[in-house]
Amino acid sequence: MFKKAFLLLGVMSLATSAGAVELTNPFYVPQEGGWASTTSYDYSTVTVKNDYAGTRAKGYAHTATQTLEYGLSDVWSLGVTVSNSWLKGTYSDYVDLYSTTDSDDKNINFEITSKYNLVSDGALKVQSILAYGQKEDYAELGAYKYAKVGAKIGYKMGYWTPYLSGTAEIPVWQSDRDDNEIKYTGTAGLYTYCPKMKVSVDHQLSVDYDEWNETRLYTYGIEAAYHVTKNVAVSAYGAYIIDGEEHKKDIHGNQIGLRLRLGF
C-alpha cells in the first residue's frame, strides 16, 4: 500500500513544467530546439491505519527525480523522467512492532512524455499530454507499465492563471492478477507569477482514484519558486494528503522537497 500512496502523493510534485512563458508556468514547454531540465529531491511519509483490523503502518521515502525535455516546436515537447526512491516501513498490530527497510534497489521509475499546447497565443491555454511509463516498485508480478492521457486548460488573468487538469493512467501488458485497473487524477490549480519580485507560487488541489483497490486520495500541494534568471528557477514544494481511504483503511501523508529548473 505504501508504494501506491507514495506514487499518488508524487503527482503533486510533478507539476507540469507555450512559448515565451516562465519555467514554472503550468503550460511551459521549451521553444523549438531548446532544452529544459528539472531536478527534484523530496521526502515523504504515508500512514495507513485500519481500526477495524487493529493495524497501523507508516512508510518513509526519499525520492530523487530528473526530467529532460526537448522542444520539437514552440508548442510541442518530448521529455524523459527518471526517478529513484529509497523506502522504509514500520508496521504495527497494536501489540507487536517491527520495521523493515527496502534494501533492494528496485524503485527506479521512468516516463516518456509528450506535451502539446493546442492553444497558447492568447489568455486561454490548452495543453494535451500523452505518456508511457514503467514503475519498478509497483512490481508484484513484474514491472508496472502504463500509458497516460491527459489535458489541461487555463486562463491567464494578469498575474494569475487558474487551471484545471485531468489524467487517466491505463495499465498495459499487465497480468490479470496484478494491478490492471485505470487510475484517475483531477486537479484544480492557481498559478501566480510576479515578474517584478521574480517569484511564482503554484497551488494545487487534487483528487486521485485507483480502481484496483478503490483508493481515494484528496491532496493539497504548493510550490514557491524564485527566478534567479530567465533560465534558472529554484523552488521549495510540499504536499499534504488531506484525506484518503482504501476500503476500511485511512490514509494520510505529507511531502516536502526542493527543485531546480534550468532552460537552455
Detail the poorly predicted runs: 15-19
* Whole-angstrom Rg: 19 Å
Strand proportion, as a percent range, falls in: over 45%
How many β-strand stretches? 13
What is the string of helix and strand elements?
HEEEEEEEEEEEEE
Q: How many strands, which pairing sense, and closed or not: the largest β-sheet?
A: 12 strands, antiparallel, barrel
On the 0 to 100 scale, the average pLDDT is 87
Give the oligomeric state of the chains in this entry, treating copies of one chain as homo and distinct chains as hetero: single chain
Class from secondary-structure proportions: mainly beta
Distance between the termini: 39 Å
Indicate the percent of residues in helices.
Answer: under 10%
The number of distinct helices, counting runs of at least 4 residues, comes to: 1
Largest sheet strand order: 1-2-3-5-6-7-8-9-10-11-12-13
Give the overall form.
Answer: globular
Structure report:
There is one protein chain. This protein is mostly beta strands and about 260 residues long. It contains 1 helix and 13 strands. It has one helix spanning about 1-10; strands at about 35-50, 55-75, 75-90, 95-100, 110-120, 125-135, 145-155, 160-170, 185-195, 200-210, 215-230, 230-245, 250-264. A 12-stranded antiparallel beta barrel has the order 1-2-3-5-6-7-8-9-10-11-12-13.
Task: Summarize this entry quickly.
With 264 residues, the chain is mainly β. The protein has one helix at residues 2-10, and strands at residues 35-50, 55-73, 76-92, 97-101, 108-119, 124-135, 144-155, 160-171, 183-194, 199-210, 215-229, 232-246, 249-263.
